Amino acid sequence: MRIDILSLFPEMFTGVLETSILKKASEKGAVSYKVTDFREYADNKHKTVDDYPYGGGAGMVLKPQPIFDAVTTMTSKNETKTKPRVILMCPQGERYTQKKAEELATEDHLIFICGHYEGYDERIREHIVTDEISIGDYVLTGGELASMVVLDSVVRLLPDVLGKAASHEQDSFSTGLLEHPHYTRPADFRGMKVPDVLLSGNHAYIEEWRTKEALRRTFRRRPDLLEGYSLNEQQMEWLSEIKKEEETY
């Protein structure tokens, strides 16, 4: 996968892209990153990329020309010749989900646009952008931090990046449910014990426990997720048991 990032503050990405999983993914050849200051594409001697909004109002608006030219250049350099997904990080965009991360992870080329100031010229949205993404119902200073969140969630899904597919296939939201609890040694820590089932060696029983606990955690913390989740007959029975247990909890 190739990832291009358009930002006025490219130095913000140095630490993020050069550590942990994102760095390992690059070293393995699973992904390549390029962060570009889109001031480089400004067609004026002062490298101005913003201007006052038509009709008046507070703040400055990003001009279309630098973004249009930057995206055109990056698209033309795409060796796979596939059309990139051009992602605008924006509080007005669709709310980001694990499903969206999995969708983006199948692409060959992603271009992230990180804006600042009051907003973007609307023609950027209408004619260049393929996806508008929001990571939550709040406003950040710019799109850099939001794009880092999306980058991390997408790159970790690429083949061989985490080593084992199961590392992310059982993540919260990947299955539609929140993930079950985890434990490690010691089995007894200051009187707090690991559930006996996890020490039993009975893998079928362990898997059943994990599924039930995932249902329990989802019911407790994010019951809204169950509304769109297709439960099989066994899971419906377990959920019914969990609801009765929770009533007396």
Automatic annotation (TrEMBL):
Its main location: cytoplasm. It catalyses: guanosine(37) in tRNA + S-adenosyl-L-methionine = N(1)-methylguanosine(37) in tRNA + S-adenosyl-L-homocysteine + H(+). One of its GO terms (biological process) is methylation. S-adenosyl-L-methionine binds at G115, I135, G136, D137, Y138, V139, L140. Keywords: Cytoplasm, Methyltransferase, S-adenosyl-L-methionine, Transferase, tRNA processing. It comes from the Bacteria. It is found in: Cytoplasm. Residues 1-227 form the tRNA methyltransferase TRMD/TRM10-type domain. Its EC number is 2.1.1.228. The keyword S-adenosyl-L-methionine applies. The keyword Transcription regulation does not apply. GO terms for molecular function: tRNA (guanine(37)-N1)-methyltransferase activity. Homodimer. Belongs to the RNA methyltransferase TrmD family. Specifically methylates guanosine-37 in various tRNAs. This is tRNA (guanine-N(1)-)-methyltransferase. It comes from Sutcliffiella rhizosphaerae.
